[in-house]
Design brief:
alpha+beta; Glutaredoxin; 7 domains; 5-stranded mixed sheet; 45% helix; 11% strand
Length: 1099
């Protein structure tokens, strides 16, 4: 980290610019935010000027605050941004600097790095422009000096999260935080001095405390807890805990300062290695990333399994790294020390879980151990807890819930900590315990609230000596243990997997689909790990409630026998559909537990009003816990009772009682009865039941809908994400009509904030959905384009898993743009295509990113480019700018584009359809026939409409080339316009040809084939003249014979000159072989094949 010395005081000072720019991903963690800034004396103005200042609003501003950034005194740029409620959400912090902010100092307690980054970008542009204009050596020297003086950092890192100085909480930069997430006011005899009234943190003060900066990334609210998704920070610990307890402390400020000082000594070494790093980086991208075949076998290894009331977790011990600690731990297990006694008594969320003693009188019979450190204390590691002395560790241990890489290192007075094991299975159990336990230490009189270990035993678990294979094995175990009761593993595009999903969809079971690629370079050793777990070598594979079911055959067999529904009910996979059915089909529903006194009181209150609710006793149901978990996701209430009236939760027992006392409960029940009809007799559901099909389904709440979106993004389930967010297919009915745009944005930020830009993309699409329901298509287009622009930023950096979502986004954008243009055309009274033209520009960017992607083959996005090409084709045809299609065709046919047969069949069919039409317009009929014929043969037989659209162009092209459609084909695809036309061409009946052309003229013009049909007139004449030749059987034919034939079929005379002209055209086009004698009015035809087959005639 870059730093600058504060001369004369011996403390480390940091420029805010350096803080905001030179930390990895610009995340800030301040060790001691409450340091008194007034204790540092003599701080001169020169250092003050280099800090970024936050200025509170004046009393005269009427609640409108502003955020001012002061740069170095010599800077030409002084940027002041006013934050008003009317500003776009992506440019301000919601609620801050406006009347809805509860406290002015809430806004002052944050570092707004995102806005400051934009200032730096502007300044860098100014400097680049200045440098470009330098012409003399002296000017260049002045410029470099000026640049050094301003201390511009290298690079422009993205900043997506703010760090709350006061409470060690992370807040999404566009998400409003509440008062309880900020620091508590400290006054009086507090150890943290705060003078001059309310404490306003400014960057000047932050600068003084910046020697405690750590560059570990904070975990945003709602972040994923997957092993591969977490990069975490250390949460500050409770400073009031006595030193008698064994603790795993967060590294002190001194340690961080020392680390920062050592970082300075490595700067030159890092700069020296920079060029080498670039070479390695280039080599990595040019080399083959396919890992070698897995030579190490999966085998079973003895591990330790802890059983709690919340579930189990398994620990792998490291005797080779901490032999004494592991030996002592094994002895304690053998003596049964950990069973029914010393459980988890300390919970520091996002940091650790600690247990193994303290709250019980049971003491370890073995001697204390010295510290053994050799491994970093990263997430999932188990460390020996100890007291102040280095040899005080014994029975107590802690599981690191997040990284704390400095805990095991000796620093200052701390001798470090021993890492002796790692959690390899059951991580979801520890996450659940961390959520359920109260934060901090439990007191001695709270021993009954600790999470005890019911059983601690040795078990055999799979592992592998290859690190990549081992990691993939643990990831698959985690996916089987968490999130969903039904897991389906299969390959993308697999027909059997699609059939399995349809079966579960029919039962309305909540499933999770995991796409497994048959490619070692995509997910190293994924197939091998899955085979080791399941013992099966074929896909797809279905798990229900962590139990292997098998593939499609087994699922179909279970469905036929009726056991599939039973398994789904036991697993809780039907909990979501059961809840939805209950609250949408009944006016009053109560989810309760039979032994709960609060539930009993709520039911008595409802009964006193004569209400007859549908009651679900969750403690008497096999799927009760699954239903309660879904209710928590749906209503944010984790307890019972949970009372629903007209499909909406009114809360629990206290809420029901409050509504009863105010008289509002009776009114709501009356309205519910009117809405749903009279309540029947009361019913109590204690066992799983077959969920009836909803006739009028209630729209899904946005929060529940976003839970599915979050799961799809977190699991990189591309197909599920595309299905969820598609506007044109609308598989999910989401309740957005009752929400304002501001509410939608706030909910999206809260649910999806951990996925950076995805929150903005999804928010834009949901806004578009709302505007579409309101028939405001111009506003829908604006919201959709905002989502497209943001997604293009994500698409540039992501791998190919986002390609299916790109396709959905592009398709929706084109459809919305067309509908918005229709709306604008109706208002203007003239045809308008402004929105479609705008959409075309953004689609071209998507095509460029996909087609020019240089990522390795396993992550390459080129296979998604053809779909974008097809959408651009449709736009160009709509805008009547077909000539622009030729550029796309050249790109597809170019050497840099992937092999055509590698693309999806649907994309290939669509491309060939449009390529054939384009070739037809360019009079390249053989190429047109080839393309359209490919589309016809590969189009799915069930898509009759698409096949008919292809035939509308393929039939006239083939007619021109002499191939007649069969009567069966014409009848099957309702091509009645070609029935009489085909017969007229075959027989050379010009009168019938003209009649067909007149009858279907409008249809041919609308289809764009009228001119092509006109060219078929020449084919009909060729067939007529061939009949004349066959009748005469001579090689010298008089023009009068042709004149007579035409008069016979048309009933109208024709001049010989016109006949001569027609024959000349037929000879020129190759339909006839011969020459004419103008003087003798004779046609001389070739003795060898005078009328060659039309199929041989060049277009």
């Amino acid at each position: 980290m870059r730093k600058q010395k504060n001369p004369g005081y011996g403390s480390t000072m940091y420029s805010t610019k350096v803080l905001n720019k030179n930390i990895v991903k610009s995340y800030l963690t301040i060790g001691d935010p409450y340091r008194d800034p007034h204790q540092v004396e003599g701080k001169n103005n020169r250092h003050k000027g280099k800090q970024m200042m936050t200025v509170p609003a004046k009393d005269t501003c009427n609640g409108v605050g502003y955020f001012e950034k002061k740069t170095y005194s010599s800077d030409p740029l002084h940027d002041t941004t006013t934050y008003l409620a009317a500003q776009p959400m992506d440019k301000r912090k919601s609620g801050f600097g406006s009347k809805d902010a509860s406290r002015r100092d809430e806004f002052m307690s944050h570092i707004r790095t995102e806005q400051y980054r934009e200032t730096l970008q502007t300044e860098m542009k100014i400097l680049k422009a200045q440098k470009k204009n330098q012409t003399t050596e002296q000017n260049l020297e002045d410029f470099e000096a000026f640049k050094q003086q301003r201390k511009f950092p290298e690079g422009l890192a993205e900043t997506k999260y703010l760090y709350d100085i006061g409470r060690s909480q992370t807040t999404e930069f566009n998400q409003k935080s509440h008062r309880d997430t900020f620091y508590t006011m400290r006054t009086g005899n507090s150890k943290f001095k705060r003078n001059n009234g309310p404490f306003m943190l400014t960057s000047e003060m932050i600068g003084l405390g910046a020697d405690d900066v750590s560059n570990n990334r904070p975990t945003p609210k709602g972040a994923s807890t997957k092993h591969d998704d977490l990069e975490v920070e250390h949460q500050s610990l409770n400073p009031t805990i006595t030193s008698s307890r064994y603790r795993i402390p967060k590294p002190s400020g001194k340690g961080a300062a020392k680390s920062a000082s050592s970082t300075q000594n490595l700067v030159f070494l890092m700069l020296g290695c920079f060029s080498l790093g670039i070479c390695v980086h280039v080599w990595q991208f040019s080399a083959d990333h396919t890992p070698p075949p897995l030579t190490e076998k999966f085998y079973e290894k003895e591990m330790v399994e802890f059983t709690t009331k919340f579930g189990t977790f398994t620990v792998e011990l490291f005797p080779e790294h901490a032999p004494k600690s592991v030996e002592n731990f094994r002895k304690l297990i053998d003596q049964g020390y950990y069973v029914d006694g010393p459980g988890f008594y300390r919970n520091e969320r996002n940091f650790l879980l600690q247990g193994g003693g303290f709250l019980v009188d049971k003491k370890s019979p073995f001697e204390n151990l010295p510290v053994e450190y050799s491994l970093p204390s990263t997430k999932g590691m188990m460390v020996i807890a100890r007291g102040q002395k280095s040899d005080s560790g014994n029975s107590e241990f802690a599981v690191m819930m997040h990284d704390n890489s400095e805990a095991n290192k000796p620093s200052g007075d701390s001798p470090g900590f021993t890492v002796f094991g790692r959690v390899v299975q059951g991580w979801h159990t520890l996450e659940y315990i961390s959520k359920k336990m109260r934060s901090g230490f439990l007191a001695k009189d709270e021993a009954d609230r600790q999470v005890k270990f019911d059983k601690v035993e040795y078990v055999k678990r799979l592992t592998n000596d290859n690190p990549q294979a081992k990691r993939r094995l643990e990831e698959l175990y985690y996916k089987l243990e968490t999130r969903h009761a039904v897991n389906v593993f299969g390959t993308p595009g697999c027909d059997e997997m699609a059939q399995i999903k349809k079966i579960f969809l029919k039962h309305r079971a909540t499933t999770r689909s995991e796409e497994v690629w048959h490619a070692h370079h995509a997910h190293p050793y994924e197939i091998e790990a899955l085979e080791a777990i399941t013992g099966q070598k074929t896909l797809p594979i279905v798990y229900i409630d962590d139990k292997l079911i098998g593939g499609l055959t087994e699922v179909q067999r279970m469905e036929k026998e009726g056991t599939l529904r039973t398994e789904l009910e036991k697993s809780g996979a039907l909990a979501e559909s059961i809840v939805w059915d209950a609250i949408t089909k009944n006016p009053l529903v109560v989810f309760s537990k039979s032994y709960c006194p609060y539930c009993k009181k709520a039911k008595e209150t409802l009964a006193s009003l004569g209400a007859k609710p549908v009651v679900f006793e969750l403690d008497q149901r096999a799927d009760g816990q699954s239903i309660q978990d879904f209710l928590f996701r749906l209503t944010d209430r984790s307890t019972v009772p949970n009372v629903f009236i007209k499909g909406k939760s009114i809360g629990g027992g206290d809420d029901t009682q409050a509504l009863y006392q105010s008289g509002e409960l009776a009114q709501r029940l009356k309205l519910a009865v009117v809405s749903f009809g009279l309540c029947g007799s009361p019913s109590v559901h204690t066992t799983p039941h077959t969920a009836p099909t909803r006739q009028t389904p209630m729209p899904m709440l946005l929060a529940a809908y976003l839970d599915r979106v979050e799961a799809a993004i977190g699991g990189k389930a591309s197909t599920d994400l595309a299905e969820l967010l598609s506007l044109t297919r609308c598989s999910y009915d989401v309740d957005v009509a009752s929400l304002s745009v501001a509410n939608i944005q706030q909910i999206c930020s809260s649910k999806l904030g951990r996925f950076d830009g995805f929150a903005e993309v999804v928010c834009g699409m949901i806004k578009a959905r709302k505007h579409i329901e309101e028939q405001q298509f111009a506003d829908a287009y604006t919201a959709q384009i905002a989502a497209v622009i943001k997604f293009m930023e994500i698409f540039r950096e992501e791998t190919n898993w986002v390609v299916p979502f790109l396709h959905v986004l592009i398709l929706d954008t084109r459809m919305i743009a067309m509908r918005a243009d229709m709306e604008a055309s109706e208002k203007a009274g003239d045809e308008v295509h402004d929105n479609l033209r705008g959409a075309e520009q953004h689609l071209k960017k998507g095509f460029s990113m996909a087609a020019n992607d240089r990522a390795p083959p396993e992550h390459n996005k080129k296979l998604g480019a053809l779909f974008v090409v097809n959408q651009l084709f449709k736009i160009y045809f709509k805008l009547n700018t077909i000539h622009l299609c030729r550029n796309l065709i050249r790109a597809v046919e170019g050497p840099a584009f992937p092999e055509f047969e590698r693309f999806k069949k649907s994309d290939k069919v669509t491309y060939q359809y449009y390529a054939g039409r384009i070739s037809m317009f360019e009079d390249q009929y053989h190429k047109a026939e080839k393309c359209l014929d490919y589309a016809w043969k590969h189009c799915h037989k069930d898509y009759v409409r698409n096949k008919r659209m292809i035939l509308q162009f393929l039939v006239p092209v083939k007619l021109l080339l002499g191939i007649m459609p069969s009567p069966k084909l014409i009848e099957e695809y309702a091509l009645e316009e070609y029935k009489g036309l085909t017969e007229a061409i075959r027989t050379g009946n010009l009168q019938s040809f003209n009649e067909c052309l007149d009858t279907y003229q409008d249809r041919f013009i609308q289809q764009g084939v009228y001119l092509l049909i006109e060219k078929l007139r020449l084919v009909a004449l060729r067939n007529l003249f061939k009949k004349v030749y066959l009748i005469r059987q001579v090689h010298q034919l008089k023009l009068r014979d042709f004149q007579t034939a035409i008069e016979f079929v048309t009933g109208a005379p024709m001049e010989l000159d016109e006949i001569e002209c027609i024959l000349a055209n037929l000879i020129f086009k190759g339909y006839m072989k011969g020459y004419m004698s103008h003087q003798k009015k004779v046609l001389v035809v070739s003795k060898a094949n005078p009328f060659p087959p039309i199929t041989d005639v060049s277009s």
